[in-house]
């Protein structure tokens, strides 16, 4: 069975909603999903451990946009993974990134690229959103070839648009499909 680690930080619920869409899509393909956060913000949150990273066959990693960068909580965690990096324990694990911002030009693409950096350093196989996902060309809110994204707008809504949900689901399914091919 393929194990997907969905690792995220969510301040207002948008990134959590995206994480849930990715997780549900992976589960429809029979994957085991580990939903993990960087800090306990809700009672049911499970804080990520390095063992969770070592157990996964695929990784989905997301945080809100912080001036075009990942949330500090995520950066702090990745800075503790040098021992895993030195041993090359994440090499060739498929991974994707996802984010949310409050405005259309709020740094989504820059954040997706920033989220990618620790994954690339670990030798992970970064998967984007290919253009055979029709919603990528139809979206008027979030969604980029670099990864799934959400735009919460001035009302800061965590409710995803239908296209954003479909892009998240496509990412979850793609991660599992690729991970199973690599097994």
Counting helices, strands and paired strands, the structural category is alpha/beta
| Count of separate structural domains | 1
The major pleated sheet works out as:
6 strands, parallel
The CATH class is Alpha Beta
CATH superfamily, please? Flavodoxin domain
Give the second-level CATH assignment, the architecture. Answer: 3-Layer(aba) Sandwich
**What is the overall shape?**
globular
Fraction of residues in β-strands: 15-25%
Percent range of helical residues: 25-40%
Mean pLDDT: 95
Helical stretch count? Answer: 7
Order of helices and strands: EHEHEHHEHEHEH
| CATH fold group | Rossmann fold
Low-pLDDT regions: none
What's the alpha carbon Rg, rounded to whole Å? 15 Å
Our measurement of the CA-to-CA distance between the termini, rounded to an integer number of angstroms, reads 10 Å
Number of strands: 6
Overview features:
183 residues, alpha/beta, Rossmann fold, six-stranded parallel sheet, 6 strands, globular, Flavoprotein-like_sf, FMN_Rdtase-like_dom, FMN binding, Trp operon repressor
Provide a brief overview of the structure.
It is built from seven helices and six strands; from the N terminus they run E-H-E-H-E-H-H-E-H-E-H-E-H. With 183 residues, it is an alpha/beta fold. The protein has one domain: 3-Layer(aba) Sandwich (Rossmann fold).
Structure commentary:
- By secondary structure, the protein is of the alpha/beta class.
- It has helices at residues 14-28, 50-55, 72-78, 82-87, 108-121, 135-138, 162-182; strands spanning 3-8, 32-37, 58-64, 94-101, 125-126, 148-151.
- Strands 1, 2, 3, 4, 5 and 6 form a six-stranded parallel sheet that branches.
- β1, α1 (14-28) and β2 form a beta-alpha-beta unit.
- α1 (14-28) packs across α7.
- The relative contact order is 0.21.
- This is Trp operon repressor.
- Residues 4-176 form the Flavodoxin-like domain.
């Amino acid at each position: 069975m393929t194990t997907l680690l969905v690792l995220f930080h969510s301040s207002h619920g948008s990134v959590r909603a995206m994480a849930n869409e990715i997780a549900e899509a992976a589960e429809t393909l029979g994957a085991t999903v580990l939903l993990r956060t960087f800090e306990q913000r809700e009672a049911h949150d499970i804080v990520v451990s390095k063992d969770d990273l070592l157990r996964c066959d695929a990784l989905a990693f997301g945080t809100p946009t912080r001036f075009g960068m990942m949330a500090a909580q995520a950066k702090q965690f990745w800075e503790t993974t040098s021992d895993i990096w030195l041993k090359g324990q994440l090499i060739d694990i498929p991974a994707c990134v996802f984010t949310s911002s409050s405005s259309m030009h709020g740094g989504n693409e820059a954040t997706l690229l920033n989220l990618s950096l620790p994954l690339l350093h670990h030798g992970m196989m970064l998967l984007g959103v290919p253009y055979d996902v029709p919603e990528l060309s139809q979206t008027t809110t979030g969604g980029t070839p670099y990864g799934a994204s959400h735009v919460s707008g001035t009302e800061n809504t965590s409710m995803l648009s239908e296209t954003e949900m479909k892009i998240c689901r496509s990412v979850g399914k793609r991660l599992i499909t690729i991970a199973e091919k690599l097994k």
